[in-house]
Structure prediction request, 419 residues.
Amino acid sequence: MRFKGWVLGGSVGLIVILLLVYYGGGFLKSNIGIGYTEEELSQQAEKSLGWLQMQLDMLDDPVDVEKVLGSTEEPSYRLIPSYYIPSSDPMSHTGIERRSWLYDNALAVIAFSLAGDQKRASTILSSLEELQNEDGSFAFAYDVFSGPIDESKRSGSIAWLGDAIVKYEVAFGDSSYRDIAISIADYLLGQQDQKTGSIKGGPDVEWYSTEHNIDAYFFFRDLGRLTGESHYIQVSENISSALLSHHWNDSEGRFNQGINDTAEALDANSWGSIFLMAVHQEELAQSPIDYLERFEVHDASLVTSMDQIKYNTTYQTQAVLTGYKPYAAGYEQPPTIVWTEGTWGVINLLLRREEPVHHLLTSMFAMQEADQHGGLVYSNERHESEPYNFYVWPAVAGTAWEYITLTNPRFIWDDTIVE
Prediction:
């Protein structure tokens, strides 16, 4: 297969094959409920990867930098811009087009590592190496020209980067960035509550997020497997115990958003079910899957609008859409949108369990076709009122989740038993 800028073959092709074996294979192990051929799924995956490559490579093209990012300067950091914003959008050239969230960079590194694309994965990690704080942490978001723009330290995003470095090293046998991961581990240990074992959201907050602790569990587990250091495995087991004892809502059969926070969040339960499978809690794992029904969105649309509140004059589809919204009870008037990043998280989970996903794939592919370059818009509808910020722009998050899930769902987090 030929992607933008590189060919999948030879040693690179071997890397991808080995990664599929190492992480338990991909969706091709079963076609139950998929309804698409291997070739069709590969084509969609290629589109996603091509867009991610193009989004990063844009930083090396002065014409694209000026057109898309609104500057004649050369970007200081090769971090992937989180969104592609059309020049006709009122938000274009307001600064958000230059913004690169840490989590999105982690996802891009994971996607490029799975693709055997060491050059692009290393490009991102080398820039992040320059930006790591002395305590091992990272900022929540960066400007590709000036560096940190949101200096909040959020444990979940930081853990994602740590896990991305682990996957990079497994993919390429290159330990150049391992010290970054070790420093991340040291930092996160400083956020761990000694009584519960749960990792705090950051040094400036007092909450303990379920999602962040799922992220941290897999990072410490995988770092322990990579390094052979048993203390990292022990940390992951302590976090696992905290999730089961302090984050699990036994009466409702699902995960709370956090400790003493019963709000309903999609990722806490889609990712939470993957976590439960990984720690051999199969009986519990089905319960949060059933709970996901309250996040389902049906009969949605992706249409153009000149309304300033719903502005979108670029992306549209005639398809009737199905997917998942990010929030439910516990949030004030949460938007009823098809959130592509979260929907792919659910698809990732359902593929592991060989449950039907055809209707979800059809909607995601229709939304992807709305962008001629193959990016996946973040949401079917714009919502820009705090605390909800969802845009109809091609985004790294959903596009990377799509590529990884279609190539090998378990490459994000392997839930298979390792004896």
The domain at 2-411 is CATH 1.50.10.10 (Glycosyltransferase). The chain has one domain: 2-411. The chain has 14 helices and eleven strands. The two ends are 35 Å apart (CA to CA).
